[in-house]
What we know:
By secondary structure, the protein is mainly beta. The chain contains 2 helices and 15 strands. Strand 9 (77-81) and strand 10 form a beta hairpin. The model is unreliable at 1-5 (pLDDT under 50).
Amino acid sequence: MENEKNEHGGMFGMGEPNTAYAQYFIGNSYLKPLTEPGASVVSIANVTFEPGCRNNWHIHHASKGGGQILICVEGEGWYQEEGKPAQSLKPGDVVTIPANVKHWHGAKKDSWFSHLAVEVPGENRSNEWCEPVEDAEYDKL
């Protein structure tokens, strides 16, 4: 069982089922915090998506600074900002997401996908979860 659990997630491992945020995902995801929550101004976690899994559209709000950086570590996935075409992601790709930009990210249909999610320090930060990425739109990718 332990080997199975470590098959995905790249060198950081898969982590545990992401039950706390499951309502904001289509499909199953897994979370492995790499920094102790609250111990630093920078939070880093490895997020692993099963094939076809993606999170809802969301916004990382901040009045100054903020946003998120994704560092892809395993598999293939998608990242899309509102009003722009989706971009394909593979290990080694880095995505800088400015604060206040509506976006989503997740796995391709036929691939597991893992990325490090780095929360960028900022002022008055909050996350807003929006609508799901509809199957009809996702299936076009």
